[in-house]
Every structure is written in C-alpha cells, then in structure tokens.
Amino acid sequence: MANKIKEFFESSKRILLISKKPSNKEFWAMAKVVGLGMIIIGVIGFIVRLLMNLVSGVV
Prior knowledge:
This protein is mainly α. The protein has a domain at 23-59. The chain is 85% helix and 0% strand. It contains two helices and no strands. The protein has helices spanning 2-18, 24-56.
C-alpha cells in the first residue's frame, strides 16, 4: 500500500515538472471550446426535455 502511494507521488511530481502554464491565447481558445460545449449540451438537454414534455402531454 505504501509503495503504491509512493509511486503515485513520484508520477505526480514527474507530471508537474514537465507541464507548463498555457499562454493567454491557448487559455482563451480552451475557454471558448469549453463554453461552446457547455452551451451545446445545454441546448440538447433543453430540446430533449421539451420533447419529453410534449410526448407526455405535460405543459
């Protein structure tokens, strides 16, 4: 058990050492993609909910 924990921390340390902070351009590109994805999923959910209400007859 202790060996697994030690391996986890070693892997985490390695990942932190090779990672880098995104530039402003990269950050805003990711933010736009995530925001667009959230909007699309919300619209799909709204349409499904609307269709379910129409099918069941509840207004």
